[in-house]
Amino acid sequence: MSEQIIERPVPADGPTAKAPQPEGKPERVASLWRDGWTDLRKRPMFLISAFIIVCLLVLAVAPGLFTARSPFSNGFCDLTNSMTGPGHGHWFGYDVQGCDIYTRTVWGTRNSIIVGVVSTVLTTVLGGVIGILAGLTGGWIDSLVSRFSEVFYALPILIGGLLVMSMVGSSNVWTVSLVLSVLGWPQVFRIMRGEVIGNKYNDYVAAARALGAGPMRIAFRHILPNTLAPIVVISTMNLGVYIATEAALSYLGIGVQSPSISWGLMINDAQDRWLTSPHALLFPAGALSLTVLAFIMLGDVVRDAFDPKLR
């Protein structure tokens, strides 16, 4: 019996062509942001710090949800209650002026968060934009801007704040935020400039330039998305630093001024009596420490999640 040979049709694309895949959901492409967010959600430190920060934001936006009293209402302070310790109805006790410390601590959250957020946004935008332009342009413009930024970078932010705020005189949260932004932008500038210089010679930038993309499109459409991770990390950590700096300036008497409420002012008022009435110092200092710690913890876990060198 002769062997029968059965010929099978060869696909039009060749013998190595793959069979068509069934239609369905498109495959998710891995990215630094998606991987980082997936990693963050698994870290207990991120969940704890995020919970604390959300609570602080709610305190800042709606302090009336946590206390029925207002520190700016008539009769809020009563000297007969001066330095009375914690008790029922006044959980944190009273300060030297007979003001309820719990209510003042809750309302003081707003000014601290405003200073931290506004200063961080301004320094990120100012330092980021100048860093992109200087790193992309190069030449004498880059050298001039870099030397100018070193003048601010060499000056510690607290000492610079003392110098500038003493010349400004009376101030509020917006003045403090502006001063901290002017002094803090070089840090973001240096990081952004280094990231731009490291990315502007990559193939995707050369391809965009070959396709006719202008400098601004290359900077903000192609380079910026690939340089945001370290900026997000440093900005998150700086937020806690600015809150602590505002409290230090207010403690020294040249930051937020009364009748505005600041944790630094409350600590200053209680420092002379902390041995006999420690509650007046511990509660605002504890609120400040917890806030700064939460943002620093968040910055640490964000750095671990989004820094490719640590992954």
UniProtKB/TrEMBL annotation:
Residue spans crossing the bilayer: 45-66, 113-141, 153-183, 223-244, 281-302
InterPro entries assigned to the protein according to its UniProt record, in alphabetical order: BP-dependent_transpt_permease, MetI-like, MetI-like_sf, OppC_N
The keyword Transport is annotated on this UniProt entry: yes
Keywords linked to the UniProt accession: Cell membrane, Membrane, Transmembrane, Transmembrane helix, Transport
Main localization of the protein described in the UniProt heading: membrane
A biological-process GO annotation: transmembrane transport
Location in or out of the cell: Cell membrane
Signal peptide: none
CDD domains: TM_PBP2
Claim: Iron is one of the keywords in the record: no
Gene Ontology cellular component list: plasma membrane
Gene3D superfamilies: MetI-like
Domain ABC transmembrane type-1, chain residue ranges per copy: 109-299
Mode of membrane association: Multi-pass membrane protein
Location of the region described as Disordered in the Swiss-Prot/TrEMBL record: 1-26
Domain of life where this protein originates: Bacteria
Alphabetized PANTHER family for the sequence: ABC TRANSPORTER PERMEASE PROTEIN, OLIGOPEPTIDE TRANSPORT SYSTEM PERMEASE PROTEIN APPC
Family of the protein in this entry: Belongs to the binding-protein-dependent transport system permease family.
UniProt protein name: ABC transporter permease
Species of origin: Streptomyces guryensis
